[in-house]
Amino acid sequence: MAEVIWTEPALQELDAIAEYIALDNPAAARHVVERVFETTERLEDFPHSGRIPPELPDSVYREIVTPPCRIFYREDERRVLILYVLREERQLRAYMLESR
C-alpha cells in the first residue's frame, strides 16, 4: 500500500480550478474537488492504474483523468506523489514551454 502525498503546486492548481468553476457553480466546484480526491485515493492500492501521458511516452510520470482535470503523479515503492493538476483542455507541452 502506497501513501498518497499531494505537492503544494498540485493543491494550488486544483484550488485555482475549483475557484474558477465556483464563479458559476459552487456545487459543481465542490463536486470536482471531491471526485479528484476520491480518484487519487485509489492510487494507494493501485499506483499503476494511471496511464503514461501521451505527450511523454518514455516518462516515469503517470496521469489519471477526472474531468475537467488531468492529475499527474509519480510513484516509487512506498509513495505516490501527486505533482500537478492541469485542466483537461490545456496541452501539457504548451504548459511546459510556458513555465520555462
UniProtKB/TrEMBL annotation:
Keywords, ordered alphabetically: Toxin-antitoxin system
Keyword Aminoacyl-tRNA synthetase: no
Family membership: Belongs to the RelE toxin family.
Matching PANTHER family: TOXIN PARE1-RELATED, TYPE II TOXIN-ANTITOXIN SYSTEM RELE_PARE FAMILY TOXIN
InterPro entries: RelE/ParE_toxin, RelE/ParE_toxin_dom_sf, TA_system_RelE-like_toxin
Organism (species): Billgrantia gudaonensis
Name of the protein in its database record: Plasmid stabilization system protein ParE
Pfam (any one): ParE_toxin
The keyword Iron is annotated on this UniProt entry: no
